[in-house]
Amino acid sequence: MITGKNSTPQRTALIYAFFGVLWILISDLVLQLSPLPPPFKYLIIETLKGWLFVLTSAGLIYFILRREVKSQQEKQSKINYQAGLIKDVSSALISLDLQFKIVSWNPAAEEIYGWKETEVLGLPFNEIITTEYIHQETAEIALQTLIEKEYWKGEVLQNRKDGSIFPVLSSVTYATNAEGEKVGLVAVNQDISELKQAEESLRIAITKYKTLFDNFPLGITVSDDAGNILESNPTAAKLLGMPEDEHKKRVIDGPEWKIIHSDGTPMSPDEYASVRALKEKRKIENVEMGIVKPDSSTTWINVTAAPLPLAGHGVVITYSDITESKQQQEALRRSEALLSEAQRIGHIGYWEWTAPAKTWFVPMSCSRFWKFHFRRKAAPFHNPPSPPWQAPKIGNTCSSWTNPSLPIIAIWIMNSASS
User: Fold this and answer.
1) Percentage of the chain with pLDDT > 70?
2) Rounded to two decimals, what is the model's pTM?
3) What is the tens place of the pLDDT at every residue in 100-118?
4) How far apart, in whole angstroms, are the C-alpha atoms of residue 258 and residue 294?
5) Is the pLDDT of residue 273 over 90?
6) Rounded distance, CA 33 to CA 223, Å?
7) Residue 379 CB-density burial (10 A; 0-12 exposed, 13-18 middle, 19+ buried)
8) Which CATH class is domain 89-196?
9) Which CATH superfamily is domain 216-321 in?
10) Domain layout of the chain by residue ranges
């Protein structure tokens, strides 16, 4: 098969010569076999040979040229289409010869680098663009890779016409002719400045999130949309009494959890704040629950859970340790109960008077000393009727009190005579 840029003329010439020789041989054979007298026979045959040869040659040439013209039109249409694509692409398309001189420079290259095509054609690429290789690569390594693999791709830093430096994702390959010979290089360069800025912003955001997540004083747990635990922070591991790896093996409504109500009764999974938030698709706040640890100790936590609007994610759960607060509340409740019982047994009572508001406060446990009955444990009221034996003393004390910002508290012991 004949190939190359001169294949069309050669093919046309060979076909024409073949049919010409074939016509001569056939016409001579017909002439020899003809029964006509020689002079007249030769005259007629030669005339017919000439006309038929001319007509046949014209038809053959027309057919060959028509095919070639149609093929060239198809090729040109393809070239025009590819040229339109090259013009419209957002990446810089740069063609170089084997001496690295610029052969073509598309509009995107003009926009990215700042030079017009007329300013750079024929110039060595390295005289215009300086290239700094990153990721521990050098120009020698890149060239060696291109020679061995006939392709190279990587990130580099290059300059614009104004001297500014910007990151580029570059792809370089060889350009070949119809015979497969290397005739140059084609580089596709993409400005990745915005991509790098987005990557840096994402890196900063992830670092902030990770730092906050790891050091936040509340326990944080994140689940997927099926309730499987994806991650938890160190505070969660401390509150729940289990390492993160063990925590990530569980689901939010798994049977491994031993959770109780404030009164000590078991809490069903449907009551968990996390499970409710996942099912109801809404925020569930301030649910108190006790986590019974493997050592039988109980950590009391206040839980808030909310749906996490990310694909494949379920809920984010935050919880704070309220164990100390619960213990203090229980201690206060016991102290109040003991005080009330001590007052009952020892017939001890007290009242409180606030000067600015002129308000009296009498605990329920002491109201019986004055024969008052209240429905609340402690009730403030105005101008209460004082006991007869204390009315003058109360009035004098209250009227002479010099620090009205502090209340007056009186304590008395009732004996059988006064009661």
Assistant:
1) 64
2) 0.54
3) 999 999 999 999 999 999 9
4) 9
5) yes
6) 101
7) middle
8) alpha beta
9) PAS domain (3.30.450.20)
10) 7-86, 89-196, 216-321, 338-413
